[in-house]
Amino acid sequence: MLYSLSAGEVSQCLTDEEICAAYLADPIRVQRHGIPWAACDVEAVLKVLRRNKVPLVTMLGEGEGSALVQDPLFQAARLEEANTLAELRAEYQLVKEALASIGICDVMIKSVGLAPSFPYKSDNLDLLYQPEDEEAVRAALVRMGYVELKNVEEPHKYLFRKFRAGRSVSAIHVHTHVGWMVSFLDEEALWQRCYTAQDDPLVTVPASEDALLIALAHCFYEDKRISLLDVLKCVHCLRKGVDWTEVYRVATWRGWRDGLNVALLLYAYQEHVLYDETTVPLPILQQAWHELPSWIRMFLERYLGAAAIHALCDGKQNIPAGLIQMPLRIPFWFSKVLFYAKLVRDPTRSVGRKFKDLALHTGYGTKLRLHIRSQPSMLITFSGVDGSGKTTQAKALQSAFATCHIQANYVWNRGGSASWLRFFTKWGKKQAQEAQERSTTSTEAKVRSRQQRFRSLWLRWGWAWLTTVELLVRYTRRVALPLLLGRVVVCDRYVYDTLADWAAYFNDPAIEQRWAARVLRLLSPRPHLAYWLDVSPTDARTRSADALPEDFLSAQCAFYRRLVLLYGLRRQEVSQRTWPEVSDGIVYEVLSKYFTRYRTLINFLFLKNPGQWR
User: Fold this and answer.
1) pTM higher than 0.85, yes or no?
2) Among 52, 295, 422, 466, whose Cα sits 20 to 30 Å from the Cα of 275?
3) HEC profile for 302-358?
4) Which of these, 110, 112, 115, 108, lies nearest to 26 by C-alpha position?
5) The domain spanning residue 442 has which CATH number?
6) What confidence tens digit (pLDDT) does each residue in 87-128 have?
7) Do 455 and 326 share a structural domain?
8) Which domain holds residue 124?
């Protein structure tokens, strides 16, 4: 049942695009007169829907807004989302079937059963599992190629990502309770009430009571905003019908009855702003208002407008204009005070556990608000002949680190590329020779010319030491210092590539034994993981813009094989595999090793190391 609360005065403060987006998202809502469908800019409407994470795939373009939905720009965006949905659902199906084979099921706690029930617009899939299945689920995800992100670990919550070509194709948040630091629901009752979504047999969703509690708690305590999608979720739950006695029982048992009352009032207010009516029964609104402490009521009067909130709770026909935002922002301090109140009041936690909860949440929150970032350093290098795909792999790995919220620097270095080295190479007859080389258009001719020049022992000695000094200066500034500051450094070419160049140009297959090579290796930061991308000289010539002589490439490859035995480079054969397949293995190995050692002193002080105070 809908309770009319205004004549439309408040909604006039919304933009035309926001009004149209709201009614497109809820097509069964009775539309007000005068909705400016024709005046709306399609791109602006899409921007509103995307900002509020409203799914487009179910918008078929029926009713008055059909012309807007049938616009090619809108249809293109809808098709893009449909592809995203299909990709994410396919990855989830693999996980669902693998776990089902060992008797483990899940509940998709961010879904309320509103089509599409698969929440593809969420940052990750929040899946609830039974506490006794936690270790089995985590182990199964690792076997399936997922990486556990220890930098975002919370008690009873573990985030896993699967990457393809450096891009995240699936993110699964494993929960063994529904909450943020502490539980907000009665999980035992949730498991008994959950059911299979009508539109998708893969998706198991919570009952209306639990889904409403999750939606309200998430927008109030976690997101600190009420978006159009949050309104749609709550509307769907209320239209299906909820047992208010059960809703309040759970919130009271978990210590957040005040938070529930505030979230309900804010939701009802935002729904009214969008649609001039609310699905929350008036008696529930009045109960929520009168139960709140006086200081909370005073804040809501100032924040939303006293006349607006009183008219809403009194069930008056005309609601004066108040705060108009889409999404509706919730002040950080206000949400945080009520969260601390929940921690203290939760009757399911012992006194000692409450002190731990307070300390843990304060440490997390302080680090976040002060924008303190602390992460372990790591050096990863990619080596190989030109055309082996070093840049592609390094960029893909950097992208994967960025997706995991880890700062990673991409560094490219090639010995002899510094401009100041030209001063030392221009003397005597060599000036004319280099001028001739620069005028040569053939890459092979340039290589032959350099090999001819490097027959001189003194020239080889001088060039090796000059490039050693050049690279050590670069490595100090671009590699060593960032590592000291706790950054991840991904190097496209490193010491090993310089040695391979020397070996091929100097015709010296044992170049690593020379003093310049020893000094360069000794004073350069030691990689945590060093990869050699092994590609045949023939394939390398076809992949590279500069087709180097095949015998030159063969000499480099032979030297790289020596380095695998001498220094433990990890060989990755790329001739018979596409680069995404190689990337998947590298990203999985690097991130798995990185998060295995994800501990720092600063994180320890803020109780943010994995497993700390769990």
Assistant:
1) yes
2) 295
3) HHHCHHHHHHHHHCCCCCCCCCCCCCEECCHHHHHHHHHHHHHHCCCCCHHHHHHHH
4) 115
5) 3.40.50.300
6) 999 999 999 999 999 999 999 999 999 999 999 999 999 999
7) no
8) 3-130+176-346
